[in-house]
Amino acid sequence: xxxxxxxxxxxxxxSAGPGWxxxxxxxxxxxxxxxxxxxxxRVGRDNAxxxxxxxxxxxxxxxVCAPLYPGDxxxxxxxxxxxxxxxxxxxxxxxxxVCRVLPGSLIGLRRVSAGAGLGFAEPSTFRPILxxxxxxxxxxxxxRGGFDIxxxxxxxxxxxxxxxxxxxxxxxxxxxxxxxxxxxRTTAGPDVVVYVCPMRCEGEKTYAAAGRCPVCGMGLxxxxxxxxxxxxxxxxxxxAPDGRHHLEGTLERGEFRVFFxxxxxxxxxxxxxxxxxxxxxxxxxxxxxVGLWVAPGDAFQIVAAPSEIGFPLRVKLFVDFHDGAGExxxxxxxxxxxxxxxxxxxxxxxxxxxx
Length: 355
Ligand SMILES: [Zn+2]
Ligand SMILES: [Zn+2]
What we know:
The chain is mostly beta strands. The protein has three domains: 6-186, Sandwich (Immunoglobulin-like), CATH 2.60.40.2410; 193-224, no CATH class; 236-334, Periplasmic metal-binding protein Tp34-type (Immunoglobulin-like, Sandwich). It is built from two helices and 24 strands. Strands 8-7-10-5-4-12-11-6-9 form a nine-stranded mixed β-sheet. Strands 15, 16, 17, 18, 21 and 22 form a six-stranded antiparallel β-sheet that branches. It has a four-stranded antiparallel β-sheet with strand order 20-19-23-24, with no helix packed on it. A hairpin with a 6-residue loop joins β19 and β20 (288-291). The chain is elongated and about 95 Å long. The model is unreliable at 1-27, 29-38, 57-62, 84-99 and 341-355 (pLDDT under 50). The structure holds zinc ion (2 copies). One zinc ion binds at residues 197, 199, 201, 213, 215-216, 218.
């Protein structure tokens, strides 16, 4: 739960000196109390001559994303915050907190920027507000100088969304606040696919659409993929740089085999890829270039390692996944001739066939 209590803010304001008028504090609450998620933006005024709107809790707001839940009815196919609100904490607030608009202020919330697919709406009318950068939503102030509005955050695509907002005073009594960024993350619905870097370069950060990891450049993968990196044939297992394939190399009866898998580690036909290798004994500079063949049944590609090469055997495998990225390189080393795996049932005939 994210909550920056008013009491702490008030203490801070009091200790900040006489220039702080408690009545100038404006508490804006973006909250989802029902689910225990709350983001509170506090707006105050600094000590300067003219005064400047100040937003507190910015760092925390950016560090943690509020959840957006799959919506229904008019929000079918969208995500929305659960009972969110941006509202003034009034003087007669249940907790006895004091918050008033500075007399004469005309406070508004300006959209500086917002991620594609993120929107805001009034929950009573569902009227879209803050639809464009630069647009300001003006708070209607009552006779006591207070206001009470709520604000829905919605998203039309899965993933993480951020919006940067800024408080402004149309009356010009206070200069605008620094921009404050708030973050929302959609929670997975039953049919929601989100994408992650297979290398988890940014932790569990997800993307709504496939693309490239901004850190390592790898193709983003379905977040449900890459859960299984265990070799299936007792060999050496690799993830391909495209993030969409895996392969496993084994040495069995003097034959080097390459098994191919998809991003979910499901076996795929070995026919779809081009493969060649360079084979040598460690310490020797005599390198044998060889081509691999598709084995009957298309379950793997294979090449016989010439027995005179000896061990330890080094295999540099070049695979073209036909994804436009050219050949990718995978290195294997085998200490000795492995025995056939005991659980090799289901494997096709070991004899390779040139095609
Ligand atoms: Zn990455
Ligand atoms: Zn993987």
